[in-house]
Amino acid sequence: MVRRAMTLIVAAVLLVGLTVAALAVPVPYVVASPGLALNTLGELDGEEVIQVEGRPVYEHDGALSMVTVQYAGGPDSRMNLFTALSAWVSPSQAVLPEEAIFPPDTSAEEVSQTQAAQMDRSQDAAVAAALGELGIDYETAAVIHTVSEDHPAHGLLSPGDVVVEVDGEPVADKDEVVAAVKDRTPGDPVRFLVERDGEKQEVEVATVGSENGDPVVGVTVETDMTFPFEVEISVGRVGGPSAGMMFALGIMDRLDPEGLTGGHRIAGTGTIDPEGNVGGVSGVPQKMVSAEREGAEYFLVAEESCDQTFESAVTGRIEVVRVATLHEAVEALEAIREGDTDALPRC
Question: Which Pfam families match (predicted)?
Answer without folding.
Answer: PDZ_2
